[in-house]
Amino acid sequence: MFGTVRRFAASQVLRAAAPRSVSARSIPQLQKWQSPLSLSSVVATRSLHSSFPRLSAVSAEAVEDVLESSRPAAPTGEFAQLATDNIIDGSLIKNIIQPDRMGLKTMTEVQFLTLNEIVKGDDILAQAKTGTGKTLAFLLPTLQNILNDPSVDPKTFARRARTGPSEIRALIISPTRELAEQIAVEARKLAFGTGLIVQTAVGGTQKRAGLAKIQREGCHLLIGTPGRLKDILSDPWTGVSAPKLNTLILDEADRLLDQGFSAEIEEIQALLPNPAEVDRQTLMFSATVPREVMQMVRKTLKRDFKHVNTVREDEVPTHERIPQKLVYLRGLENGLPAVLELAQKYQERAESENLRPFKAIVYFNSTAETKISAEAFSSLANSREFRMSPLGNVKMIEINSRLTQQARTRSADNFRRAREAILFSSDVTARGMDFPDVTHVIQVGVPREYETYIHRLGRTGRAGKEGEGWIFIHKGEHETYRKRLGRLPIKGDSPTNPTLLTAGADMSQPQSPDTPEGQIITQIQEALASVPADLKVSSYMGQLGTATSSFSYKGEAIQALNQLSSIGYGMATPPYLSPRLVQQMGLRGVTGVSVGDRPRESFSRGGDRDGFSRGGDRGFSRGGDRGFSRGGRGGRGGSRGESRGDFLFGDRNRGDREGFSRGGDRGDRGGFSRGGNRGSFRPSGRERYSDPSFKEGGSFDF
């Protein structure tokens, strides 16, 4: 059964049948007859703010009679039919259906309901969950419209001639670099052989190369993040403009506005041709339609826009459909052994029960935890014992906001293609990223927000395939867990018959090599022994904020972290905290806190890894590679637009920006923003990063 298509304009036919409003859900018999050739059959005469009461049986029958004559004899949802009916160019369809390209045959609901409307040039507000094919829903008709544009010469495609930046016909705005790159990958697959040129505009280390590519090769479809697009379009020296733009697309509109990009979007629109002079189609795709999205709808879309809704009221949400399990850890040091045990047990079952291979995303609340975990498991994967185990073919992949954009894109692509893999991730992949065949989402520690848990969990159980959700927490986090996630259908582990023996093992005691849990713990301890000492210090520091805010008592959090450093990391003493940091975090007088200057030999001269300068507590290294500064001697200079470190208060996760930049743009650069942009130093308010380093009186994220 299909969702809702609503036209916000008058309709004499439906006024006669239903003078107030029509909901497609109330007349399901209409939906089975809809085809890409006639998708405007359900019309509403009231605005989105109005409710859409169900039609009476008489009204529904009247609409049914009116539309009977327009029904096709054999409605279809297959892509091949679009080429047969001359709706979509055969080259585009060939790229979709060929097994060695995209290998798709049938349209999803959101694709089916929006395609014809977009090709006709209507403004669309499409509401659909992630993982339902939204990207192809707007890419396919948009590329077709570019091919249909009489001002675009197809001959230049065949010659592969330089089209020039002024040839930009469509612009897609995405909230994150990862999503922009993901859309670009799909767009290039779809445009193969047509001559259409797809380019990206994102920040990070590739921003100059991306601009040079646009200038050198030209561009028909430009995909980017808000900050970078604004920079390029507003700077006359780039030579990039879009005087002939006819399509503007806002992907993940709710997330764009939730992350505060409204101002940038309005600035970008001001840099585009006046819609009164150059007609422009606007498409907004969103998982939800909150008030902020409706405000943008009024400012951006035409009055007769259509609302396509594929999210049914009676549909079971992902977080209620996927089995979820809670496991308590005896100590923070038990987390990685528990991950390994879970992977081993599932893989053994997969071989005997013909299940899908283990493919998991392990989420952490700080970048430093992500890095040390990936480092340890990569070391473990190189051992002969591991290669001979059922997990021997599992790839270990890391992705977080501290990697270069090129490295992040490579990690995402590798995990997407992998059959068996573990992705150690911060929240840069928590929303919008589409990874096929993910069997497990494992969250270590209580997420900062309810929404964060939901979005992470949504990376599995996609495309109708089964998945599992697991969350590992310390017993000291129970109260916070109960407050944030207590209403979710998460099944707690049995105290008498625990699922994972390593989760409750006393790792302070020697482990027996004769037991499976003893072997796993020994493997993890040996792998962590090979991790550099400064990365262990960074991990400790990175967890200070989340631990002291999620544990019931700060003293208990410090005790758990100290135990992690000694038992898990094998450190002789916990890292020293400067008196100033202790003061800021409210840790003065807390038992177990090591106060004082760090030993000289553990300071890095250039802020490498932890970013502390040789000057100790006199100052953090100014923009060191991992930390932040106020004038310590050893760090690198403050970054004006690159990721260097975080320092902020707040309790709201906002994406993947990080660092100290002097006015870095919102979407890409991150940094110590003097103008209130992303990555700003804030004593209060909402956190704007996926990997915050200082929150709720918290710590530095190294």
UniProtKB/TrEMBL annotation:
**InterPro entries, A to Z:** DEAD/DEAH_box_helicase_dom, Helicase_ATP-bd, Helicase_C-like, P-loop_NTPase, RNA-helicase_DEAD-box_CS
Positions of the Helicase C-terminal domain: 338-508
Q: Please note every region of biased composition (Basic and acidic residues).
A: 597-628, 639-671, 684-694
Annotated GO molecular function terms are: ATP binding; hydrolase activity; RNA binding; RNA helicase activity
Q: What does the function comment of this entry state?
A: RNA helicase.
Broad class of enzyme this protein falls into: hydrolase
Matching SUPFAM superfamilies, A to Z?
P-loop containing nucleoside triphosphate hydrolases (SSF52540)
Q: What is this protein called?
A: ATP-dependent RNA helicase
User: Which reactions is this enzyme annotated as catalysing?
Assistant: ATP + H2O = ADP + phosphate + H(+)
- Where is the stretch described as Disordered? 487-517, 592-702
